[in-house]
Design goal:
The protein has 22 helices and eight strands. By secondary structure, the chain is α/β, with parallel strands linked by helices. Among the domains are: about 120 residues, no CATH class; about 190 residues, no CATH class. Helix 4 packs across helix 5, helix 19 packs across helix 20 and helix 21 runs antiparallel to helix 22. The longest helix has 22 residues.
C-alpha cells in the first residue's frame, strides 16, 4: 500500500478558550484524550494525532484502549496505514531519559498487541523529537530505539523474530537560527544514516515549530526562518533524492502561526511547500464544528498540490541579517518584562495536565537567564493585557528595515505581514498600553512599536467590530482587576472566547 502522508495532525496543545464540542469541557484531562483522538479521526477527519509525551502527563495504554473501545473503526482505518498516531517523545538532552525508555517500550509492545489482535502492525511508525539541535540527536534517538527493540526481543520473544526494529524520527526544530541552517542538520543526518545502514531513509518529515521561534525572537523572524527552512528542505531533497514532507506547528493567533478555519486559504499560501499542518485545540474547539471540518478538508485537498518557493543564497543571507536585528529588538524589550509576564500568566487557566516544562527562552546577559511561560501562556498573557505580542520589537525593526532597504524583501516573503498585524491590532487596547507604559519602560517601547507599524506599513490598528470593542472592555477589566488584586480569570476566558484562542 502506498505510504499516506497526513496533511492534518491534530495535537493536544492547550490553546482553546471554549469547551470541546464532544465533551463540553474546556479542560481536557489525560483520560479524555483517548476519546479526543478518536473524535479527531472519526468526526473531524484528521489523518494524524500527536500523542504528547513531552511536557505533559500521558496515558500509556493509548493503543490498547483505542483498539478495545473502537475496534470496528480501527479495523477499517488501521493505525499506521490509514490513520496515524505519532508520539512526541521526551528529548533526553533536555531531561532525564526514563520517560523516553517508557515511550520506546510502549511502542514496541504496542506492535505486539496490534499483531496479536489482528490489526495492522506496527501501529506507531514515527516519533517526533522536540528541540532538535543537531544530526547526532536524530541518529542517536533512532539508535536507542533499535537497542530497546532488540533488547525486548531477546528477553521476551522466544522465537527471536525481531521484525520491528526501526522507527522514523521526525526532527522538530524550534529555534530561528536552527531553522535557517537546517540544511546542515539534515545533510549531516543523511550522511550518518547512509554510512551506518548503507542506504538513505525512505523519506523525512522535518518539523518546523512556529510558536517557540516567535517566543524567542518575535513574529517576523519566526515567519522568515520558516520560509528559509522550507526552501532548505527541498534543496536537500533535490541533492540527496530523499523525499521531504515538511510539517509546521501552528496555533490560531498570528504570533503562533495564524492557522485557523477563518483564514486557512491565506495561511496555506504563506507556507507553500508544507505537507502537514498541526490542528491545535483552539482550531478544533473555538470555531463551529462545520467550519472546522470544512477547513480540514480544504487543507487535505490543497497541501499536496502546492509547490515550495526556493530562496537564493543571497536571500537567505539577507534574511539571517534581518532576523538578527528583529530578534535583538524583541529580546531587549521582552527580557525586562519576564517577572511581570510570569505574574500575569498565573491568570491564564490550564487546559491540559501539563508537567513543568524545560524553558526555551533564555540567553546570556552576564547575569544569568530569564524564564518565560510556554508560548501559549505567553501569548495569552499579552493578549489579556490588550497588548498583542506580534508588535513587540516589530515596529522599530520595520523602521530599520525600511531605512536599510530590507523592507521590500520582508513584504515579498512574508505575504500576510499586513494582514497578520492588522488582525492582531483588532485586539489592541491603547489605554491599557498607556497605563503600562507609565510603569514599565519596555511597554513604552511597545507603544512606539505600535506607532511604527502603522507608520511603516500604512495600516490602522485597533478594534473594528462589536466583538473587538467587547474584547477591549474585557481586557480593561483584566488590567484594573489585576491592579487591585481581584480575580480576573473569568474575563481572561471570555476575552479568549471572543478572539477564538486562549493564547
Amino acid at each position: 500500500m502506498k505510504r499516506i502522508i497526513p496533511a492534518t495532525m491534530s495535537t493536544q496543545h492547550p490553546d482553546n478558550a471554549s469547551a470541546a464540542f464532544w465533551c463540553n469541557k474546556s479542560f481536557i484531562n489525560t483520560a479524555d484524550e483517548i476519546e479526543e483522538a478518536y473524535i479527531a479521526f472519526s468526526d473531524l477527519g484528521c489523518e494524524e494525532y500527536m500523542w504528547d509525551w513531552e511536557g505533559k502527563f500521558v496515558d500509556e495504554a493509548v493503543i490498547d484502549k483505542l483498539f478495545r473501545k473502537y475496534t470496528q473503526y480501527f479495523q477499517k482505518n488501521p493505525l499506521g496505514q490509514k490513520k496515524f498516531l505519532t508520539y512526541r517523545i521526551p528529548n533526553i538532552w533536555e531531561e532525564h531519559g526514563y520517560r523516553l525508555a517508557r515511550a520506546f517500550m510502549n511502542i514496541v509492545t504496542s506492535a505486539d498487541l496490534a499483531k496479536e489482535a489482528g490489526f495492522h502492525t506496527p501501529p506507531i511508525m514515527e516519533v517526533i523529537l522536540p528541540m532538535t539541535k543537531n544530526a547526532d540527536q536524530i541518529f542517536e534517538t533512532d539508535s536507542l530505539f533499535r537497542k530497546v527493540a532488540k533488547l525486548k526481543c531477546e528477553i521476551f520473544d522466544s522465537k527471536k523474530q525481531c521484525d520491528f526494529s526501526h522507527i522514523d524520527v521526525i526532527p522538530l526544530v524550534e529555534q530561528v537560527a536552527d531553522l535557517t541552517s537546517v540544511n546542515v542538520l539534515l545533510e549531516e543526518y543523511l550522511k550518518k544514516y547512509k554510512k551506518a545502514y548503507k542506504k538513505y531513509p525512505t523519506l523525512m518529515r522535518p518539523f518546523i515549530a512556529r510558536s517557540d521561534p516567535a517566543l524567542n525572537a518575535g513574529i517576523v523572524p519566526s515567519v522568515l526562518a520558516s520560509k528559509v527552512a522550507i526552501s532548505h528542505f527541498y534543496n536537500v531533497q533535490e541533492k540527496y533524492g530523499v523525499p521531504m514532507y515538511p510539517i509546521i506547528g501552528t496555533g490560531s493567533l498570528p504570533f503562533r502561526g495564524g492557522v485557523n478555519p477563518e483564514n486557512i486559504e491565506e495561511v496555506i499560501q504563506e507556507y507553500r511547500g508544507i505537507r502537514t499542518v498541526t490542528v491545535q485545540s483552539a482550531f478544533k474547539y473555538d470555531y463551529p464544528e462545520v467550519q472546522v471540518r470544512a477547513a480540514l478538508k480544504y487543507i487535505q485537498d490543497t497541501l499536496p498540490k502546492m509547490k515550495p518557493d526556493f530562496l537564493s543564497p543571497k536571500e537567505v543571507a539577507e534574511i539571517v541579517k534581518v532576523n538578527a536585528f528583529f530578534a535583538e529588538m524583541y529580546q531587549k524589550t521582552v527580557e525586562p518584562l519576564a517577572p511581570f509576564i510570569n505574574k500575569v500568566a498565573a491568570s491564564i487557566p490550564p487546559r491540559r495536565e501539563r508537567m513543568q516544562h524545560i524553558g526555551l527562552f533564555g540567553y546570556s546577559r552576564g547575569i544569568g537567564k530569564v524564564s518565560l511561560p510556554r508560548a501559549i501562556t505567553f501569548t495569552g498573557s499579552f493578549y489579556s493585557l490588550g497588548v498583542p505580542p506580534e508588535f513587540i520589537g516589530t515596529g522599530r525593526a520595520l523602521r530599520r528595515a525600511k531605512k536599510e532597504g530590507y523592507l521590500p524583501l520582508i513584504e515579498r516573503l512574508y505575504i500576510n505581514l499586513r494582514r497578520d498585524l492588522t488582525h492582531a491590532g483588532k485586539y489592541l487596547n491603547r489605554e491599557n498600553l498607556e497605563f503600562l507604559a507609565k510603569k514599565h519602560p519596555s511597554f513604552k517601547e511597545i507603544a512606539e512599536d505600535v506607532r511604527a507599524v502603522e507608520e511603516v506599513l500604512g495600516i490602522a490598528l485597533g478594534p473594528i467590530r462589536d466583538a473587538h470593542f467587547l474584547h477591549r472592555n474585557l481586557v480593561s477589566n483584566i488590567y484594573h482587576k489585576m491592579e487591585i488584586g481581584m480575580d480576573a480569570a473569568e474575563d481572561v476566558v471570555q476575552a479568549g472566547i471572543i478572539r477564538k484562542s486562549l493564547g
